[in-house]
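Lab notebook, page 48
Experiment: co-folding of the full assembly
Goal: obtain a model of how the components sit together before planning crosslinking
Operator: M.T.
Materials (sequences as entered):
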Amino acid sequence: MTEHSTAPRSRRERPAKPALTREGIVATAVALMLAEGLPRVTMRRLAQELDTGPASLYVYVRNTAELHAAVLDELLGEVDLGPAKGDGDWRGRVVAVLTSYTNVLFEHSALARAALAVHPSGHNYLALLETLLALLHEGGVPDDRAAWGVDVLLQTATATAAEHATRGEAGDAEGQRDALAAMVHDVPAATHPRVAALGVELFTGTPQERLTWIFRVLLDGIRHTPRT
Amino acid sequence: MTEHSTAPRSRRERPAKPALTREGIVATAVALMLAEGLPRVTMRRLAQELDTGPASLYVYVRNTAELHAAVLDELLGEVDLGPAKGDGDWRGRVVAVLTSYTNVLFEHSALARAALAVHPSGHNYLALLETLLALLHEGGVPDDRAAWGVDVLLQTATATAAEHATRGEAGDAEGQRDALAAMVHDVPAATHPRVAALGVELFTGTPQERLTWIFRVLLDGIRHTPRT
DNA sequence: ACCTGAACACCGTTCAAGT
DNA sequence: ACCTGAACACCGTTCAAGT
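Observation: model returned without errors.
Model output:
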């Protein structure tokens, strides 16, 4: 009897379709991304997850790029800002925070590429920015260089994650890496002496090893190189 | 009479449909990209341009990513390697070559994003690599640092171009930049003192101004920072 | 070996119409 | 104001079948 007591309360799905809000949409998008990867976080797929049509999402989200940016900022909440308050060398603490940032992007690889495209602007990104700027300030880096420097540091981390992104999820970068390696291997010393001389050296090191070196290169350079 | 002389010679289109070759496909892809932008360089659109079906292209091209990589390498032929043989400071010459590289990517913006995804491996990329390695060698940069350093230099240039890519072609990054700028403007000094202190400083400078500073930062850092 | 038609399984975004 | 059905204009990739 209670099953279909009144008319307007028509057949509804099990999990009591929740009202649409930007928050709910983004949360669902994050869950979907964790479960199936960013490429599956499309307007249509997400709408289906929310038991509605894609057009409905456009009330809360301008487009797919903005949706991905929101997902990205949400994930930036996983970055460990703790090391910033440690008491070791400030440079080591900058590297620790950036390494945590990189690891988050590495785990959710496709997001790194999105990060380059959208320039995140959520509050988690802002917290990261603040943390890094405070450390550079503590290290005595002049404001004008810190302002530009923090951008390069994050960009380098992001780009490195983006480059090594395809390996896991879309799985076809492997072949491309080999293509370059093979080309470098076969290069004649007569036309390309330096490439031939360095050879495999060009491909040594894990992304992490390379990154920690690069972070130090940047911190050194930022401290020593005046602007203008 | 000659119009339809024999039967097998059926109605054919004006530009005498050329035989498919990888070269021809890539050349057409480049032309299409120059005319309509990279987002239009799809398998289907390209096949249409070549007067065939998309399936035919898969004989010569593994997938869309590889196609874009080939287009990218072709465009890398526009990079001016001339400055490398000048006689000024080697650092200035590195910056000149990298600036040319950046300009090419800036003009064909969407390619920059592709460059991060595919790690180009054509012969034009190889020539660029050789040129930069020779300059670093000339500058006395140790081999192990040159090997990793050249990668960072190119990555930074590429990532910067990729970030500022959307502005022109897809045209929606503008709004996102403003979003971050607005957020930074409204940030309370109590919770985010450094962000508040730097304020607009975070957004000053053209990409080119920033890049030339960054290139010097990197060259300085690479010279002074040992590996391990 | 090379080429193709047709199909499968998707996309983003807009818009007129409803509530 | 919010939500939706339906449509428009596309995608990448595979595969059986032809030449």
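Interpretation: Confidence is low (pLDDT under 50) at residues 1-15, 167-173 of chain A.
Next step: discuss with group before ordering constructs.
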